[in-house]
Amino acid sequence: EKGGYEHFMLKEIFEQPRSIADSMRGRLKADEAHLQLGGLRNYLDKLASANRIVVVACGTSWHAGLVAEYLFEELARINVEVEYASEFRYRNPVINENDLVIAISQSGETADTLAAIELAKSKGATIFGICNVVGSSIARATHAGAYTHAGPEIGVASTKAFTAQVTVLTLMAIAVAWRRGTLSEELYRQLLIELETIPSKVERVLAKAAPIREIASIFTYSRNFIYLGRGLNFPVALEGALKLKEISYIHAEGYPAAEMKHGPIALIDEDMPVVFLATKDNSYDKIVSNIMEVKARKGRVIAIVTEGDALIPGMVDFVIEIPNTHDVLTPLLSVIPLQLLSYYIAVLRGRNVDQPRNLAKSVTVE
Ligand code: M6R
């Protein structure tokens, strides 16, 4: 059932070209400039006229929510608040019938997320679900939704569910932006065309598994890691750190790169590996300065860069190249090497990657 892979996690990482394509299938036809999500049909106007969107989720799904914040803000010019479901449910959140809540959950069974939905519902908000498991409790508790078609995810560490969530949220943000009129026709068409190329670009990142394993073998026994990114790569930094923590038990922190100066930079020395998300997007120049700051303090740097980058490889210790894409689609590619890096480090340390200690696949108690 592992299809020849040593672990479910590795199988699921390698399934991503297909799970991303499956999450777009029937919804997107770039050559016809067609984009439609069935579950959104009766809610598109409501979303398009929303003053704000509140996202509730936990863990990796919360990271997908942070990506959505950026996408809806950038493309649709809608204000988004991303909440840990566990915090939201125990506050006294200001929420009413004008609010639109997006609940994100792979399993559809996360207790805190379900409770957050019930709370928002009781205040009259409209709830839209992004779930992977068909017929799950969250899928049933929401007013409408769009499934991620990632297929069953067995490994406790979420991989293909995350990229499927980001795919569906990207389709939603583009559809809502188009309806709101905040997107030019040129950009709309360009994004749809670029989205269709993502599965084959993910394939190209997966082809780098062997060199990523090499890097993993150099850092197998590191005791700490910092992951830094800006903009859309900030949630990816958080996700990379979470993956490493949960399956290798190495302490790792994700930070917005510019926050480093406000504290974490004190941690940097030759024993502190720093993973930089340094793709060619609108934060590139800033990230280059952040890399210089880390190198000046002898930090060892692994950088995820865009193919053809001629500058960063000369500055850092290791680079992993990913194909170029439109800025807003970057997380779908930049997260892949981080999944592989954590996987190989955990395997080299002899960890039980599919069932890490103390963790369950779905957290059905609070
Ligand atoms: O099933 P859900 O998406 O609601 O689960 C949320 C988190 O429990 C989950 O993403 C968790 O953080 C994963 N183990 C991360 O890899």
TrEMBL record:
GO cellular component: cytosol
Alphabetical UniProt keywords: Aminotransferase, Cytoplasm, Glutamine amidotransferase, Repeat, Transferase
Class of this enzyme: transferase
Transferase keyword on record: yes
EC number: 2.6.1.16
Transmembrane segments: none
Biological process according to GO: amino sugar biosynthetic process; carbohydrate metabolic process; fructose 6-phosphate metabolic process; protein N-linked glycosylation; UDP-N-acetylglucosamine metabolic process
Active-site residues per Swiss-Prot or TrEMBL entry: K361
Protein name: Glutamine--fructose-6-phosphate aminotransferase [isomerizing]
Organism phylogeny: Bacteria, Pseudomonadati, Bacteroidota, Cytophagia, Cytophagales
Whole-protein residues included: 247 to 612 of 612
